[in-house]
Known about the structure:
mainly alpha, 2 helices
Amino acid sequence: MLKTRGGGRSRAAGYNVVAIPVAAGVFAWAGVALSPAAAAVLMSASTIVVALNAQTLRWVHLTPDDQ
């Protein structure tokens, strides 16, 4: 379970390091910007990924030794 949780956190951190500055327009000077529609699609995709990751935790069978 800790590997699953750690993997999810690292993916979320990586996504946030890239997506938040792009969505905020930090790189607009370089021509990298998102339209509001593209940002909405990416936010929806992010929510779906989080929900799927939560579903994978149902398949993990914990024993007292795993904690």
